[in-house]
Write a structure and sequence with these properties.
With 218 residues, the chain is α+β, with helices and mostly antiparallel strands. It is built from six helices and five strands; from the N terminus they run αβαβαβαββαα.
Protein backbone atom coordinates (compact mmCIF):
# COMPACT_ATOMS: atom_id res chain seq x y z
CA UNK A 1 0.00 0.00 0.00
CA UNK A 2 1.66 3.25 -1.11
CA UNK A 3 2.12 5.89 1.53
CA UNK A 4 0.67 9.39 1.35
CA UNK A 5 3.97 10.95 0.23
CA UNK A 6 4.24 8.67 -2.79
CA UNK A 7 0.60 9.26 -3.71
CA UNK A 8 1.12 12.99 -3.53
CA UNK A 9 4.28 12.75 -5.64
CA UNK A 10 2.56 10.66 -8.29
CA UNK A 11 -0.32 13.15 -8.41
CA UNK A 12 2.12 16.04 -8.79
CA UNK A 13 4.00 14.29 -11.60
CA UNK A 14 0.74 13.46 -13.37
CA UNK A 15 -0.28 17.14 -13.35
CA UNK A 16 3.09 18.18 -14.71
CA UNK A 17 2.89 15.56 -17.45
CA UNK A 18 -0.58 16.66 -18.49
CA UNK A 19 0.31 20.36 -18.53
CA UNK A 20 3.56 19.90 -20.47
CA UNK A 21 3.75 20.18 -24.25
CA UNK A 22 6.56 17.60 -24.36
CA UNK A 23 8.87 15.54 -22.16
CA UNK A 24 12.59 14.99 -22.61
CA UNK A 25 14.17 12.26 -20.51
CA UNK A 26 17.82 12.30 -19.49
CA UNK A 27 20.21 10.22 -17.45
CA UNK A 28 22.21 12.31 -15.03
CA UNK A 29 24.52 9.62 -13.67
CA UNK A 30 27.82 11.28 -12.71
CA UNK A 31 26.51 14.86 -12.49
CA UNK A 32 27.13 16.78 -9.32
CA UNK A 33 24.45 18.63 -7.41
CA UNK A 34 25.95 21.92 -8.61
CA UNK A 35 25.86 20.83 -12.26
CA UNK A 36 22.24 19.71 -11.99
CA UNK A 37 21.36 23.06 -10.41
CA UNK A 38 23.08 24.90 -13.25
CA UNK A 39 21.21 22.77 -15.78
CA UNK A 40 17.89 23.57 -14.09
CA UNK A 41 18.60 27.29 -14.34
CA UNK A 42 19.53 26.97 -17.98
CA UNK A 43 16.28 25.19 -18.83
CA UNK A 44 14.15 27.79 -17.04
CA UNK A 45 15.31 30.30 -19.64
CA UNK A 46 13.57 28.24 -22.37
CA UNK A 47 10.37 27.62 -20.37
CA UNK A 48 11.17 24.12 -19.12
CA UNK A 49 11.72 22.61 -15.69
CA UNK A 50 14.01 19.72 -14.78
CA UNK A 51 12.99 17.21 -12.11
CA UNK A 52 15.02 14.29 -10.77
CA UNK A 53 12.47 11.48 -10.46
CA UNK A 54 12.10 7.93 -9.33
CA UNK A 55 11.37 5.73 -12.30
CA UNK A 56 8.58 3.79 -10.59
CA UNK A 57 6.73 6.95 -9.57
CA UNK A 58 7.16 8.57 -12.97
CA UNK A 59 5.96 5.41 -14.68
CA UNK A 60 2.86 5.30 -12.47
CA UNK A 61 2.14 8.98 -13.07
CA UNK A 62 2.54 8.51 -16.83
CA UNK A 63 0.17 5.57 -16.82
CA UNK A 64 -2.35 7.60 -14.80
CA UNK A 65 -2.05 10.30 -17.47
CA UNK A 66 -2.79 7.73 -20.18
CA UNK A 67 0.80 7.36 -21.42
CA UNK A 68 2.28 3.89 -21.69
CA UNK A 69 5.08 4.75 -24.11
CA UNK A 70 7.67 5.66 -21.48
CA UNK A 71 8.15 2.18 -20.04
CA UNK A 72 11.33 1.43 -21.96
CA UNK A 73 12.85 4.85 -21.28
CA UNK A 74 12.62 4.89 -17.50
CA UNK A 75 15.77 3.05 -16.51
CA UNK A 76 18.78 4.21 -14.53
CA UNK A 77 19.06 7.60 -12.76
CA UNK A 78 16.48 9.73 -14.58
CA UNK A 79 15.77 13.43 -14.78
CA UNK A 80 12.83 14.68 -16.82
CA UNK A 81 12.61 18.03 -18.58
CA UNK A 82 8.97 19.12 -18.56
CA UNK A 83 8.64 21.37 -21.60
CA UNK A 84 6.12 24.18 -21.50
CA UNK A 85 7.48 26.19 -24.42
CA UNK A 86 9.43 25.33 -27.56
CA UNK A 87 10.61 21.73 -27.40
CA UNK A 88 13.29 22.41 -30.02
CA UNK A 89 14.81 25.18 -27.88
CA UNK A 90 14.84 22.86 -24.87
CA UNK A 91 16.45 20.05 -26.88
CA UNK A 92 19.13 22.46 -28.06
CA UNK A 93 19.80 23.53 -24.49
CA UNK A 94 20.13 19.90 -23.34
CA UNK A 95 22.44 19.12 -26.25
CA UNK A 96 24.67 22.05 -25.32
CA UNK A 97 24.63 20.92 -21.68
CA UNK A 98 25.66 17.40 -22.71
CA UNK A 99 28.75 18.89 -24.34
CA UNK A 100 29.52 20.81 -21.17
CA UNK A 101 28.64 17.87 -18.93
CA UNK A 102 29.51 14.64 -20.80
CA UNK A 103 27.82 12.57 -18.08
CA UNK A 104 24.44 13.97 -19.16
CA UNK A 105 22.73 11.66 -21.67
CA UNK A 106 19.48 12.31 -23.55
CA UNK A 107 17.53 9.04 -23.39
CA UNK A 108 14.37 9.93 -25.28
CA UNK A 109 11.18 11.88 -24.99
CA UNK A 110 7.47 12.17 -25.55
CA UNK A 111 5.90 14.55 -28.05
CA UNK A 112 2.47 14.79 -29.68
CA UNK A 113 1.35 11.43 -28.30
CA UNK A 114 4.43 9.59 -29.55
CA UNK A 115 7.50 8.33 -27.73
CA UNK A 116 10.91 9.40 -29.01
CA UNK A 117 14.00 7.28 -28.73
CA UNK A 118 17.39 8.80 -27.96
CA UNK A 119 18.11 9.49 -31.62
CA UNK A 120 14.71 11.11 -32.18
CA UNK A 121 15.01 13.30 -29.10
CA UNK A 122 18.52 14.43 -30.04
CA UNK A 123 17.37 15.15 -33.60
CA UNK A 124 15.05 17.81 -32.23
CA UNK A 125 18.12 19.85 -31.34
CA UNK A 126 19.10 19.97 -35.02
CA UNK A 127 15.81 21.57 -36.05
CA UNK A 128 15.24 25.29 -36.27
CA UNK A 129 13.61 26.84 -33.24
CA UNK A 130 10.08 28.18 -33.35
CA UNK A 131 11.33 31.79 -33.25
CA UNK A 132 13.58 31.19 -36.24
CA UNK A 133 10.81 29.48 -38.21
CA UNK A 134 8.35 32.27 -37.36
CA UNK A 135 10.93 34.81 -38.45
CA UNK A 136 11.38 33.01 -41.77
CA UNK A 137 7.63 32.73 -42.26
CA UNK A 138 7.28 36.44 -41.54
CA UNK A 139 10.04 37.13 -44.05
CA UNK A 140 8.32 35.04 -46.72
CA UNK A 141 5.00 36.73 -45.98
CA UNK A 142 6.64 40.15 -46.22
CA UNK A 143 8.26 39.20 -49.52
CA UNK A 144 4.92 37.98 -50.91
CA UNK A 145 3.25 41.21 -49.78
CA UNK A 146 6.00 43.23 -51.47
CA UNK A 147 5.57 41.28 -54.70
CA UNK A 148 1.80 41.71 -54.53
CA UNK A 149 2.17 45.45 -53.93
CA UNK A 150 4.61 45.78 -56.84
CA UNK A 151 2.21 43.89 -59.12
CA UNK A 152 -0.65 46.13 -58.03
CA UNK A 153 1.36 49.31 -58.66
CA UNK A 154 2.41 48.01 -62.10
CA UNK A 155 -1.20 47.19 -62.99
CA UNK A 156 -2.34 50.58 -61.77
CA UNK A 157 0.34 52.36 -63.82
CA UNK A 158 -0.63 50.37 -66.90
CA UNK A 159 -4.29 51.23 -66.40
CA UNK A 160 -3.51 54.95 -66.02
CA UNK A 161 -1.37 54.85 -69.16
CA UNK A 162 -4.20 53.24 -71.13
CA UNK A 163 -6.65 55.78 -69.73
CA UNK A 164 -4.44 58.69 -70.80
CA UNK A 165 -4.04 57.18 -74.26
CA UNK A 166 -7.81 56.81 -74.54
CA UNK A 167 -8.35 60.42 -73.48
CA UNK A 168 -5.90 61.61 -76.14
CA UNK A 169 -7.50 59.48 -78.82
CA UNK A 170 -11.14 60.50 -78.23
CA UNK A 171 -10.74 64.32 -78.75
CA UNK A 172 -8.66 63.68 -81.88
CA UNK A 173 -11.39 61.56 -83.43
CA UNK A 174 -14.14 64.00 -82.40
CA UNK A 175 -12.25 67.03 -83.78
CA UNK A 176 -11.75 65.39 -87.15
CA UNK A 177 -15.48 64.73 -87.57
CA UNK A 178 -16.71 68.31 -87.01
CA UNK A 179 -15.10 69.92 -90.11
CA UNK A 180 -16.63 67.21 -92.26
CA UNK A 181 -20.15 68.15 -91.11
CA UNK A 182 -19.63 71.92 -91.45
CA UNK A 183 -19.25 71.97 -95.25
CA UNK A 184 -22.51 70.02 -95.58
CA UNK A 185 -24.31 72.57 -93.50
CA UNK A 186 -22.67 75.38 -95.57
CA UNK A 187 -23.73 73.81 -98.86
CA UNK A 188 -27.32 73.58 -97.68
CA UNK A 189 -27.24 77.18 -96.52
CA UNK A 190 -25.82 78.53 -99.80
CA UNK A 191 -28.15 76.45 -101.90
CA UNK A 192 -31.25 77.89 -100.34
CA UNK A 193 -30.63 81.48 -101.48
CA UNK A 194 -29.97 80.23 -105.03
CA UNK A 195 -33.28 78.41 -105.00
CA UNK A 196 -35.11 81.44 -103.63
CA UNK A 197 -33.20 83.83 -105.89
CA UNK A 198 -34.68 82.46 -109.14
CA UNK A 199 -38.30 83.25 -108.29
CA UNK A 200 -37.23 86.69 -107.17
CA UNK A 201 -35.62 87.40 -110.51
CA UNK A 202 -38.70 86.17 -112.33
CA UNK A 203 -40.99 88.39 -110.28
CA UNK A 204 -38.81 91.39 -111.04
CA UNK A 205 -38.96 90.68 -114.78
CA UNK A 206 -42.74 90.33 -114.70
CA UNK A 207 -43.06 93.56 -112.80
CA UNK A 208 -40.90 95.36 -115.37
CA UNK A 209 -43.01 94.04 -118.26
CA UNK A 210 -46.20 95.15 -116.53
CA UNK A 211 -44.79 98.62 -116.12
CA UNK A 212 -43.83 98.86 -119.76
CA UNK A 213 -47.35 97.84 -120.82
CA UNK A 214 -48.88 100.44 -118.60
CA UNK A 215 -46.68 103.18 -120.00
CA UNK A 216 -47.60 102.20 -123.57
CA UNK A 217 -51.31 102.30 -122.88
CA UNK A 218 -50.92 105.67 -121.33
Amino acid sequence: MPNATKIERVSELKERIESATALLLTEYRGLTVGEITELRRSLRDVDASLAVIKNTLMLRAANDAGIQALDGLLAGPSAVAFVNGDVVAVAKRLKDASKQFPALVIKGGYLDGEALDAQGAQALADLESRDVMLSKIAGLFKAEMSRAAAAFVAAQSQFLALLEAYKEKVPAEGGGGEPASEPEASDETTSEPEASGEPAAADASEASEATDETEQEA
